[in-house]
Design goal:
OB fold (Dihydrolipoamide Acetyltransferase, E2P), alpha+beta, five-stranded mixed beta barrel, 20 strands, 346 residues, 24% helix, Rossmann fold, 37% strand
């Protein structure tokens, strides 16, 4: 069983009347990669900066490997940090950038050189020692920043939107590299992002934040399939909101009765929250529930957008083989494939 490496308790941070963090609590186990996910302004970067020692909280504590570091300065915390904007020293070579933290720790030159060679090989830059930042691509610069953070063998690696400035394909490749390195080195890692695909694809657990609060933290599977709130359900993946009404714990959707899963005091008129892959669209020559607005081909799957007579927009994700006869204007029947659906007040 993994022990807790980082324990954050009761963090609150106010900027005047604005509450950036509201009783924020987080435990990260040794060797775990946890992502904090949420929209801009939700408090995730503030939490990271407080953990790094770059900012002070109004209340709360930060404990690392059983040591209270709440009042320690950033350089005393043995944490590596990678920012969105690389933050490389332009006048230093790749090797000199990576060596910076080791020099500050007064590591001998011979050991520094061995560590630099080893980490640059790990990040795929073993032939770039003498190059400068302006001679590197964005992805390569971020690899240097990652190497600089990891070479000091930090107890925790903190990543603040490290990939958001990169092109889509480079971003995808580099996030997989980050996960490979993290697993290989066993580094406890906290990763801040607003990109749900990024968070869900590489993390052991994902914490979804909203208005300074951590609404839910779970494995990607649990987060997606069993969201704790309508905010989490809507923020993580696409979600249809179908107007309906609860009667004896059931909701009627497209002519079928489905069990309603409630997360609060929902009653009467509600919205059923249904993932696109849990709705089937079937061509109809008779009675129909909706008409097709668009069909987007995405290779093995296709995204079908329909509209019901009351104006509700419904998205379905199906195999492309099953959607070949669906075209804009087609009259269709809709079928809910889930036996249970989450509902929220209308």
């Amino acid at each position: 069983m993994k022990t807790n490496s980082l324990i954050v308790s009761g963090l609150t941070r106010r900027f005047g009347a604005v509450v950036a963090l509201d009783d924020f609590n987080l435990n990260v186990a040794k060797g775990e990669l946890v992502a904090l996910l949420g929209p801009s302004g939700c408090g995730k970067t503030t939490a990271l900066r407080i953990i790094a020692g770059l900012e002070k909280s109004n209340t709360g504590s930060v404990v690392l490997n059983n040591k209270d570091i709440t009042n320690d300065h950033a350089h005393q915390r043995n944490m590596g940090m990678v920012f969105q904007a690389y933050s490389l020293f332009p006048h230093l070579s790749v090797a000199e950038n990576v060596a910076f933290g080791l020099k500050m720790r007064k590591v001998s030159k011979s050991i520094r050189e061995k560590k630099i060679d080893s980490i640059l090989e790990l990040v795929g830059l073993d032939h770039h020692h003498k190059r400068f930042a302006h001679q590197l691509s964005g992805g390569q610069q971020q690899r240097v920043a990652l190497a600089r953070a990891l070479v000091i063998e930090p107890e925790v690696l903190l990543l603040d939107e490290p990939l958001s400035a990169l092109d889509a394909q480079v971003r995808t490749n580099l996030r997989e590299e980050i996960r490979r390195l993290q697993l290989e080195l066993g580094t406890t890692t906290l990763f801040v992002t607003h990109d749900q695909e990024e968070a869900m694809s590489i993390s052991d657990r994902v914490g979804v934040m909203n208005k300074g609060k951590l609404e839910q933290i779970d494995t990607p599977d649990v987060l997606y399939n069993n969201p704790a709130s309508s905010f989490v359900a809507s923020f993580v993946g696409n979600m249809n909101k179908i107007p309906t009404q609860i009667t004896d714990g059931m909701v009627e959707i497209f002519g079928s009765n489905v069990i309603a899963l409630k997360r609060g005091n929902e009653s009467g008129k509600v919205h059923a929250l249904i993932r696109p892959e849990s709705i089937a669209v079937i061509a109809s020559s008779g009675q129909s529930h909706a008409k097709v607005l668009t069909r987007s081909f995405m290779g093995a799957s296709s995204n079908i957008v329909c509209q019901t007579p009351d104006g509700t927009i419904v998205q379905s994700l199906m195999t492309s083989a099953a959607t070949g006869d669906l075209h804009p204007g087609s009259q269709v029947q809709l079928q809910v494939l889930s036996k249970e659906v989450l509902v929220t007040n209308a």
